[in-house]
Write a structure and sequence with these properties.
homodimer, 11 helices, two-stranded antiparallel sheet, alpha/beta, TIM Barrel, about 45% helix, about 270 residues
């Protein structure tokens, strides 16, 4: 089980509009050791500037979001760039949101993901970046990720070395799956990234921005965290919450509440 | 594969605000042979009046929606009543929406469903009504159905005789599941009810009323219908679409478009 903030990582998407230097200052001041970053704010601030900022504050980067979207025209170049960015930031993990149907059938779209992984895995491995396939909630299957279950993510990862391709487990996306605990046990060393967010109702229109801080909804965090521990995962535990109401608030308040939520659910 | 309207059933929820006598008249006039009914409009019109209305129009009832909600205080009495109503209407099937968490963990809520089925199956069987567990889309797992996959529904049905407990397959709820085609093959004679609706975006707030007529979205209906045929299912094919925009329109227009959509996707 996690202790204090040792394994906590603040994913900057939880305070989407908080400028990167403020995220870094706020985290360092709060005793946070690790941050999850996103490509767009990193690009806005500048890649090498961002890397220096985080490094000089003594923080590590737990993951970079996101590669994937294998149905997009520029998927190959864009994913290679994302891998390069992760390497430059010292992020051991690039989270992959694999993309929706892009006009294809589910099977064809999933085959496209498999082909994309095959093209990228050696490149990622030589860059020292692990690809983490994120199964997303099935309500995003058409437009964001045809990989909708942990089973599907593990199946896509299986042809590749464990150190090249793993999975990103976000409680928000997988909590409803009656197979999820046996699948976490089966995932073992494939678990490359763990993210916490809670399922809260009602869902807003378009359903993207309706997540809750851990403890606000119905996810069984204690059981989930024990399961990933038992599977052998010893890495960072990110909190990443897409929430219109959180995003409307000052970043420092969001960070404080996120830490409090993390401490509560990791004590369960 | 289906031919003409022989197997088509119009689920009255597709034209929610169309009065039952108009539904029945409209269906009979259009050459529709079967309707799917809901308990609330049947109760409003009167149970025996509804049964007589449908019978005298020469229609059969493909299913009654809905029993289930096993976490509710009155679940036992209410489900027995629903079974009685299905029998009175001549409906061979009562669709079960099994209910959300009701403050329980997922495992506890699912155990509650299993216990509910055990209590009801003999009662249903002696009434000549088959219970059909409907796996609902995982976005409803917290509030409407902890049974979120066909795998979960089949597992819950498995202890009971096939003629007592089956599953209700609605394309809207299961289309995203990479396991769905092998699971349909495995379901075989457990398939008690088949309903068509399409996945369309964007999802509206609360996500209940955002479905599309077959063909409007990304569901592979041809493949789905071939799979249920191959599994041995020879019963009615309902179209049931929860859609705020359809519900705002005149019932006779909705019926005409529903028939056209059905004819298009069954010809695929």
């Amino acid at each position: 089980m996690t202790q204090g903030l040792e394994r906590f990582s603040f994913n900057q998407a939880t305070a989407k509009h908080w400028p990167l230097p403020d995220v870094v200052d706020g985290c360092a001041a709060a005793g946070v050791r690790s941050v999850g970053l996103w490509r767009e704010p990193v690009a806005s601030y500048g890649l090498s500037r961002s890397a220096a900022l985080v490094r000089e504050a003594g923080l590590s980067v737990s993951s970079l979001c996101r590669g994937g979207f294998f149905g997009a025209d520029d998927w190959l170049d864009d994913n290679k760039l994302a891998i390069d960015e992760a390497a430059a930031l010292g992020s051991p993990v690039l989270v992959l949101v694999c993309g929706g149907l892009f006009g294809r059938t589910l099977d064809d779209a999933r085959s496209r993901v498999a082909a994309g992984l095959e093209a990228l895995a050696p490149y990622a491995q030589s860059a020292g970046v692990r690809l983490a396939i994120e199964p997303m909630h099935p309500m995003f299957a058409a437009d964001r990720s045809v990989v909708a279950t942990l089973r599907g993510a593990l199946s896509l990862a299986s042809p590749f070395p464990v150190e090249a391709v793993g999975v990103a487990l976000d409680t928000y996306h997988v909590w409803w799956d009656e197979q999820v605990f046996p699948l976490i046990a089966a995932a073992g060393s494939r678990i490359a990234c763990v993210q916490l967010a809670d399922w809260v109702l009602p869902l807003p229109a378009d359903v993207l921005l309706g997540r809750g801080l851990p403890g606000a909804g119905c996810v069984e965090f204690g059981r989930f965290l024990r399961a990933v521990d038992k599977a052998g995962y010893t890495g960072p535990i990110e909190v990443e919450v897409f929430s219109a109401s959180l995003w409307a608030r000052p970043g420092k308040d969001v960070l404080r509440e996120t830490i409090a939520a993390y401490e509560t659910v990791t004590a369960q």
